[in-house]
From TrEMBL:
Protein name: Large ribosomal subunit protein bL25
Alphabetically ordered keywords of this record: Ribonucleoprotein, Ribosomal protein, RNA-binding, rRNA-binding
Any Pfam family matching the protein: Ribosomal_TL5_C
Species lineage: Bacteria, Pseudomonadati, Pseudomonadota, Alphaproteobacteria, Sphingomonadales
Domain Large ribosomal subunit protein bL25 beta stretches: 102-186
Function (record text): This is one of the proteins that binds to the 5S RNA in the ribosome where it forms part of the central protuberance.
Cited CDD domains: Ribosomal_L25_TL5_CTC
Amino acid sequence: MSEVLDLSAEARERAGKGASRAMRREGRVPAVIYGNKQEPVSVHVEEKVLMKLLHTGHFFNSVVMLDVAGKKIRTLPKDVQFHPVTDRPLHADFLRIGEHTKVTVDVPVHFKDEELSPGIKKGGVLNIVVHDLGLTVDAAEIPEEIVVSLKGLNVGDSIHLSQIKLPKGATAADTDDVTIATIVAPSALKAEEAEAAEAAEAEAPAEDEAAEGEAPAAEGEEGAEG
């Protein structure tokens, strides 16, 4: 299951752009906690700690326990806004949830058994279409990743959503049977096939011209015999 992350927060007494800018100068990031039929709470968190959690790679599909003045609040990160130039976090949104609330999260898809794929052994390339799979799942059972086996797959084969075994109690947020990945021919092989096709097309007009050139000669021969 995905790791539960801890993050300390302090209540914001002042709101507005001026107050937010002052917080950022002090290395703090304004944030809001909302949802679960309760009033929103304005807080701020330490920028360095928030960045460290973001770099875990699974921040947005993890439960974050916010400690506000000693009170633990179970949340799910929903959004972090970044400065367009510096990439520093400007604001964060946290959705307040219950221990077993059904939540929708994007879970990373990882692939294994490449050595057992005949297509990849032949030089085929894994083309990943869906990197993160949307799942609706119990907040206490959020998977860290979805692992998909490539065993037995050949060039031209595809993996669809319906072929993936989801964790118990989880359902896909997408109702369509989307393509998750395909095994495609290597670019070099594609180039050879394209060159062969072009050569075949070039030969076809030449053969037609030769056939057309032979027809008058045949007629001339018939006239001589007559």
